Amino acid sequence: MATVHHRRRLSTAFSAVLFLPLLLNAVVHCKTLKRDVKALNEIKASLGWRVVYSWVGDDPCGDGGLPPWSGVTCSTQGDYRVVTELEVYAVSIVGTFPVAVTNLLDLTRLDLHNNKLTGPIPPQIGRLKRLKILYLSFNNFKGEIPKDLASLPELRYLYLHENRFTGRIPPELGTLQHLRHLDVGNNHLVGTIRELIRIEGCFPSLRNLYLNNNHLTGGIPAQLANLSNLEILHLSHNKMSGIIPFGPAHIPRLTYLYLDHNQFSGRIPDAFYRHPFLKEMYIEGNAFRPGVKPIGIHKVLEVSDTEFLF
Hints:
Blueprint: H1 2-28, H2 34-47, H3 49-52, E1 72-77, E2 80-87, E3 94-96, E4 109-111, E5 116-119, E6 133-135, E7 140-144, E8 157-159, E9 164-168, E10 181-183, E11 188-190, H4 193-196, E12 208-210, E13 232-234, E14 241-242, E15 256-258, E16 263-266, H5 270-273, E17 280-282, E18 287-288
Parallel strand pairs: 2-4, 3-5, 4-6, 5-7, 6-8, 7-9, 8-10, 9-11, 10-12, 12-13, 13-15, 14-16, 15-17, 16-18
Antiparallel strand pairs: 1-2
C-alpha cells in the first residue's frame, strides 16, 4: 500500500511539474493590449518629464518585475490586460488635452484635474463609451464644452469646473441616463437653464447641478421641477433674473439651493420654507422684496491652501 501511495504522490508531483509551465505560460502571455501600450506611450511623450520619472518600462500595466505606471490601473479581459483607470492629477502638466487618451477604449475613470492643461477638449472624447467618471477641473481648458460628451452612456460624474470654457452648456448632456453630478462652475458659460433642460425627460438621475460663477441669464423655469432627483442646485454669481417659481419647491429631495449674487426679484414662494429637506437657501445679493429670508445658518468658509492639496 505504501508503494502504491508513493507512486500516486510521484504521479501527482509529475503532473504538477508538467502543468507549471502551462500556468507560467498563461501568466507571461497575459500581455497588455497593444492599443493601450501605444496610447500610454504617446501620452507619456506628450506629458513630458513630470510623469516620465515614474513611468518606467514600456508596459504601463507592468512587466518583467516592473510595477504598473503610477496612476495607471489595469484589469484582465480574456487573454489581455487593458487600462481601465488613468489618474494624472496635481503634477502641473502643461499642453493640450492628450488625444491619445481617447484610444483607451476600456477606460472607466479619467482624472487630469489640477494641472495646467489648455486648449479644447477634443470631440474624440466621445469614443470612451465605458467612462463613468471624468475629472478635468482646475485646468485652463477653453472653447465650448463638446456635445460629444453626451456619447458616453455610462457617465455618472462630470467635473469641468475652474476652467475657461465658453459658449452654452450642451443640452445633449441631459440624455445621459446615469449622470448624477454635473459641475461646470467657474467658467465663462452663457445661456439659460431653459435651454439646458429643453429635452423632454432630461437629466433623469441628476442629483447635483453646479452652474455657479458663469454668465448665465434668464430665469429659473418651472420645468426645473422635472429634475426630480435634484439635491443641490448651485446658481450663485450669474446674471439670472426674474421671480422664483414655486415648481422647484416640490423637488422632493432638494437640500441646498444657492441663488445668491444674481438679479432675482419678487418674493420666494412659501413652499420653499415648508420644504422638509431644504437645509440651506442662499439669497443675498439679489433684488428680492424686503422681508425675504434665507433658510439655514450661513457661514463664510475660510479654507487654507493646504486643504486643496492631495
